[in-house]
Amino acid sequence: MLRRPYTLLVGLLSLYLFFLASCTGEQEEVSPMAESFALGVPANLATSVPYPDRNPLTHEGVALGRMLFYDPVLSKTGTVSCATCHQQEKAFTDGKALTTAGVSGKPLLRHVPSLVNLAWMPGLFWDGGAKDLESLSFGPLTHPDEMGQDLKALAQKLQQHSQYPQLFKKAFGTDSVTSAAITRALAQFQRTLISANSRYDKYVRHETGGDLSELELEGLTLFQEHCSSCHATGFFTDNSYHNNGLDSSFSPDHEALAYGRGRISGTPEDVGKYKTPTLRNIALTAPYMHDGRFQTLEEVLEHYSAGVVYSASLAPELQQQGRLGIPLSPSEKAKLIAFLQTLTDESFIQNSAFSKPQ
């Protein structure tokens, strides 16, 4: 039977955050001064941007969230912002396997994920430990190796700031800065981080600049055959959890972090499963996997071709025709990589609306 102390810990943390949010303004109204923020969505991605009723998008909320995202005042030491590890030019990753940029200087135990198209993701983090964007930021803000912040102290610090109290009032109609309002503002900004304007997207939409070469089109065919069951739809993720054969055993150390989704669900069938990452902007987000173990796309494809190892929860898709993995020739790997590079969205990494406010 799977040992469950970590499940109890996660449950207690979730309850704590629920009551914390309830006590710090979970029922706050949107300010009557706030103006609704309409987001255009490319047709091949979705028809609209979902958001919870308690946190509709407003110009004031998005602007506040953007300001907070880039402000190191959110960390205990005043030296680490969200953008320290989520850099726009790298599709909001940091280019490191396990970053040491947090307040403690210790390496984190998971790779920094890309922040892209998060509005449509029902579970966040590599194990789905955050159910939505409103709860996403509590973990990084308070983790001792990330921003190391006490939420009450942070609210007090922002309350005493020369600009933030008025900005929170405009966005949420509250005279007091609360942790719930902080995470709501961050959620609103991150909901705007939409990427669907790559060369591939223009090809799908039959737009100018959407030409794909013969090599790239052959790569697309291979992708649809071998990869699209998990990297599905226009989001290039099925938003589910899979064991892709990286390891044969999983350590219970560090609160069973290696269990992946099993750490959250508490079921043996989920041990070793991780969230399918989007492949959008994949050429910009190296290194790869939940622990950043692969430096290049070539290494990733070599893993799927010849490096998959067995464990009880290994994805069925990687156990076909009496062998592990996906047989790929050098030529097929080159074609797949050529296609994956068409998913780079230059307008996303250059969009001034996502950059540090001046």
UniProtKB/TrEMBL annotation:
Chief location bin: periplasm
Post-translation changes: Binds 2 heme groups per subunit.
Binding site for heme c 2: 227, 230-231
Cross-referenced Pfam families: CCP_MauG
SUPFAM superfamilies attached to this UniProt entry: Cytochrome c
Domain Cytochrome c span(s) in chain numbering: 214-344
GO molecular function, one term: heme binding
Residues given in the record as heme c 1 binding sites: 82, 85-86
UniProt cofactor(s): heme
Domain of life according to the entry: Bacteria
Protein name: Cytochrome c peroxidase
Originating organism: Pontibacter ummariensis
